[in-house]
Amino acid sequence: MSIVKIKDKTFQTSISEAEIKQRIKELAKQVSHDMEGKNPLFLGVLNGSFIFAADLMREMTIPCEISFVKLASYQGTTSTGKVKEVIGINENLTGRSVIIVEDIVDTGATMKQMVESLGTRNPASIDICTLFVKPDKLKEPLDIKYAAFSIPNDFIVGYGLDYDQQGRNLKEIFTLVEE
Ligand code: IMP
Ligand code: MG
Questions:
Q1: Which residue segment(s) compose the domain that 161 sits in?
Q2: Of the ligands numbered here, which is closest to the C-alpha atom of 51?
Q3: Which of ligand 1's atoms lies nearest the C-alpha of 154?
Q4: In sequence order, what are the beta bridge partners of 104?
Q5: Which of 2, 114, 156, 161 is 20 to 30 A removed from 121 (C-alpha atoms)?
Q6: How far is CA 12 from CA 4, 6, 15, 20, 49, in A?
Q7: Among all ligands shown, which has an atom nearest to the Cα of 108?
């Protein structure tokens, strides 16, 4: 068990690098099977998904493409998180099998908004592929086709996920230690 301090918080290891790699391999196998002959377009959501997207892509065994979109949440007047596109998508999505690649689905607000906005661009299909989901926090009715890990409501960092922009470089997943 290793411990890291990031700014004012303490985190301890919860998922090993080997476990993550194994699950990504399984997920890629499933996606490769489901998307055979469809040349899927992965859409990675920046910043958090960059490591997951790279590892997932390298485990794919069928032709596929990748692009990225950058979203930023801002404080709205309601309690629902609102999200805007900072870097948009240049690709023509008409008739494409789109797979959104996300680091973690928490309330689901980000994914709901993204599925709705992509839906207006006439894709053949839109599926969600996330490294983590916190099922107990999910507020939106979301169909998450691919999820590597379901986790409790704890805050995690590592493998692309950050605490205040730090910790994305950690090779394992670390969970916040509540004091
Ligand atoms: P949602 O819109 O509430 O589903 O929020 C999803 C976004 O919140 C993710 O893309 C992450 O950027 C961030 N997030 C949620 N939970 C965590 C966590 O445990 N660690 C790091 N970032 C998180
Ligand atoms: Mg994110």
A1: 3-176
A2: 2
A3: 19
A4: 132
A5: 161
A6: 6, 11, 10, 16, 21
A7: 1
Which ligand 1 atom sits closest to the C-alpha of 47?
Answer: 12
Residue 144 DSSP code: -
Please report, for the domain that includes residue 72, its CATH number.
3.40.50.2020
Helix, strand and coil content of the chain, in percent to the nearest 5, comes to 20, 35, 40
Nearest CA to ligand 1 atom 3: 107
Q: Ligand 1 test: best mutation among 11, 161, 170, most atoms within 8 Å of CB?
A: 161
Catalytic residue from among 106, 136, 162, 164: 106
pLDDT in tens, 90-108: 899 999 999 999 999 999 9
Find out whether 8 and 173 touch, Cβ atoms under 8 Å.
no
pLDDT tens column, 57-83? 999 999 999 999 998 765 443 434 667
* Mean pLDDT in residue range 16-42: 98
Residues 6+ apart with CB under 8 A from 139: 107, 108, 109
Angle between helices 50-59 and 17-34 (to 10 degrees): 60
Number of domains in the chain: 1
Give the pLDDT confidence score for residue 74 in this predicted structure.
54
Determine the pLDDT at residue 23: 98
Asked if 103 is an active-site residue, the reply is no
